[in-house]
Amino acid sequence: MQTGVNSRATKREQTRENILIAARKCFDAQGYDGASTREIAREAGVAEGTIFSHFPTKEELLISSVGDHLADAIKQGLHTMEPEWCFVDKLMHIASYRFAQIALQPGLWQVILQQLVFSPRKGAVKELMRGSGLIDAVMRLIEDAQLDGELNPAIEPAAIHKTVIALFLFTIHEHVGAENYDCEDMCATLRDLLETQIKGIWLRRPVTAA
Fold first, then answer.
1. Is residue 154 assigned to a domain?
2. pLDDT at 1 over 60
């Protein structure tokens, strides 16, 4: 009996993954409005109703498809990161995996900007970042860097985190606008912004004698 339950759960999870892969492909090629749930179902090899048994709305499907993709990038970045790297190098390592995904499906990121970032329903972006593990991963890196003396411990980690995400989104927006999705170019842009912040704002300040 247990084997049958596990088999059904595995099949359901595989169906969900097939739907997410199909959704990313369709959103990338045709945009949010152009990619119908009927076409996504056809691409995934399932009935249209099956999509809604996994995702209540088309927007939820978009959030999940991007969130799972982002989670994969974070997982790969964290698992291949060297502990002795500096804060910026660790952030850039994670970002490089995400930029590589964007370079392969730039149309998908345009959908994200249009549907979630610049015209979001309340909480959609935070839901995506929290569900993917991005918030927790970046916060841990910030807190570790403050303990190690790389970043000013007087600054709230949440404030640094918000700025990191803002710089990431700015980088993507700049490259989407220029239609330049080269991974190395995106990494260079973000690194310059992060290093400027650290030198000018986040750097641990030396204690001066009174």
1. yes
2. no
- Contact status, residue 56 vs residue 63, Cβ threshold 8 Å: no
pLDDT, one tens digit per residue, over 153-176 is 989 999 999 999 899 989 988 998
Judged on CB neighbours under 10 Å (0-12, 13-18, 19+), 151 is: buried
Contact 78, 102 (CB under 8 A): no
Q: What is the mean predicted confidence (pLDDT) over 178-191?
A: 93
**For residue 98, what are the domain limits?**
58-202
Alpha-carbon distances of 44 from 15, 48, 53, 199, rounded to whole Å? 8, 10, 14, 48
CB atoms within 10 A of CB 101: 19
- Please tell me what DSSP assigns to residue 20: H
Residue 42, classed as helix, strand or coil, is helix
Number of structural domains the chain divides into: 2
The dihedrals phi and psi of 151, each to the nearest 5 degrees, come to -120, 150
What tens digit of pLDDT does each residue of 7-47 get? 878 888 999 999 999 999 999 999 999 999 999 999 999 99
Q: Are residues 159 and 107 in the same domain?
A: yes
Contact (Cβ atoms closer than 8 angstroms) between residue 21 and residue 3: no
35/123 same-domain check: no
Q: Which residues are CB-neighbours of 3 under 8 A, at least 6 positions away?
A: none
